[in-house]
Amino acid sequence: MPARHYFPTHKHRWHQLLYASSGVLIVDVIGERLFIPPENTVWLPSGYQHSVSTEYGAELKSLYIDSSYRQLPTDKSLVLKISPIIKALIIEISTFDVEYPILGYEQDVVSLMLSTLPRLKRVTDHLPWPESSELLKMCCQLYEQPGGKQTTLMLADNLAMSKRTLERKFHRETGMTIQAWSLRLRFLKAIELLTAGHSITNISLDLGYSSPSPFIYMFRNISGMSPREYLTSLSDTKAT
Hints:
alpha+beta
């Protein structure tokens, strides 16, 4: 997918498995925005409405799976931690001819992938989106300017409501505080920018940090590794 490409909201009669071997996919589903870096894949059941975009470009692999497959949920999306074997299987299957039925070697590879998918670890650090139009607009603005300096009081004033009312309403709709949501947003945007090749210094400034040190501290505190270590882990995965 080229940079700033967007597939508007749609659905399929098949299950779909989306994976980006490079770059970050942004998948919008009901009530959530899913960031899909190269270490994850996303499961979208048949009939499930979603849109797909990428800010800086991504090498997209998309597999369609018969709707009779029932080893993963058929009523909700899932983000799964990709394993080296699943990565290799997805890349291999993406080279197959789309003609059906598949037989022999191709059938064996597909069967192995389908039996392995349910064993993948589920990733839960998504970015929940509110339902009300006023909070949705606010979150879209925060998403476009993740380094903004607006306080909760300033956000509340913009919505003509009290700080306490905004905090209660936001938590009720997302299950998170505004501060926790904003921190998760900055972390996910950091991954997006890192995989696009931006420097740590520029990312720090773009996300509102005064220098790289507090940014690196935030990143390590959430992920357990520094930004450079994260990029190295992606390189190791590509080499696997």
